[in-house]
C-alpha cells in the first residue's frame, strides 16, 4: 500500500446558475478589478492508502460519484499524487 | 494583452477547524470508504486579460488578498495559464 493524496475538483456544469460566483465577480468589479468571468469550484484533498495510483483514482472517483458531486448539476475531475 | 485564466485556491490554515470537511469525511466513512484525512478548499477560476503571466498572477493575488481569502484563517495560492 502506498500513501496518496487524491484531489477531487467539483464544479457546476456549464449552464447551471452560480449566484455565489456572480456575487463574487460583482464585488471584485466594485473594488476596481477588471475580469472577464469568474467560476467557483469545490476542491477536496483526500489522503488515502491504495495499491497504486489507478486504485487511488478509482476510489476517489467513487467518492465523488456517491457523495461529493451531484451528477445532475456537477462535473468533477480527480488528480492523484503520491504523498510523502 | 493576452487572455489568461488564473486559478486561486483558498484553503484554511493548518490548525483552523473545518467542521464541513469533518462531516464530509465522516459521511464517506459511513459509506464504507477508508481515508486518512480530508481537507476542503475553495477554487476560483478567473478569466482576465493582462500583459503577461506575471501581471495576471499579481492581479489574481491582489484579488485574493482583498476579497477571496481572509488572511487570518486562509492560505491561498495562484496559478496562471493562457486561455484559448
From TrEMBL, chains A, B:
Catalytic activity field:
N(2)-formyl-N(1)-(5-phospho-beta-D-ribosyl)glycinamide + L-glutamine + ATP + H2O = 2-formamido-N(1)-(5-O-phospho-beta-D-ribosyl)acetamidine + L-glutamate + ADP + phosphate + H(+)
GO BP term (any one):
'de novo' IMP biosynthetic process
UniProt pathway? Purine metabolism; IMP biosynthesis via de novo pathway; 5-amino-1-(5-phospho-D-ribosyl)imidazole from N(2)-formyl-N(1)-(5-phospho-D-ribosyl)glycinamide: step 1/2
What is the protein's known function? Part of the phosphoribosylformylglycinamidine synthase complex involved in the purines biosynthetic pathway. Catalyzes the ATP-dependent conversion of formylglycinamide ribonucleotide (FGAR) and glutamine to yield formylglycinamidine ribonucleotide (FGAM) and glutamate. The FGAM synthase complex is composed of three subunits. PurQ produces an ammonia molecule by converting glutamine to glutamate. PurL transfers the ammonia molecule to FGAR to form FGAM in an ATP-dependent manner.
Family indicated by similarity: Belongs to the PurS family.
Q: What class of enzyme is it?
A: ligase
Q: Where is the major localization of this protein? A: cytoplasm
The alphabetical list of record keywords is:
ATP-binding, Cytoplasm, Ligase, Nucleotide-binding, Purine biosynthesis
Claim: Transit peptide is one of the keywords in the record: no
Q: Which GO terms describe its molecular function?
A: ATP binding; phosphoribosylformylglycinamidine synthase activity
EC number of this enzyme: 6.3.5.3
Q: Which InterPro entries match?
A: PurS, PurS-like_sf
Tell me how this protein assembles. Part of the FGAM synthase complex composed of 1 PurL, 1 PurQ and 2 PurS subunits.
What organism, scientifically named, is this protein from? Halobacterium jilantaiense
Can the keyword Heme be found in this entry's annotation? no
Q: Where in the cell is it found?
A: Cytoplasm
Q: Name one GO cellular component term.
A: cytoplasm
Supply the name of the protein.
Answer: Phosphoribosylformylglycinamidine synthase subunit PurS
Amino acid at each position: 500500500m502506498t500513501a496518496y493524496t487524491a484531489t477531487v475538483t467539483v464544479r457546476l456544469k456549464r449552464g447551471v446558475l452560480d449566484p455565489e460566483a456572480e456575487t463574487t465577480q460583482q464585488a471584485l468589479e466594485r473594488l476596481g478589478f477588471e475580469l472577464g468571468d469568474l467560476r467557483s469550484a469545490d476542491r477536496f484533498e483526500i489522503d488515502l492508502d491504495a495499491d497504486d495510483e489507478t486504485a487511488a483514482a478509482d476510489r476517489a472517483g467513487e467518492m465523488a460519484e456517491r457523495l461529493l458531486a451531484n451528477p445532475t448539476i456537477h462535473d468533477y475531475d480527480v488528480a492523484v499524487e503520491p504523498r510523502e
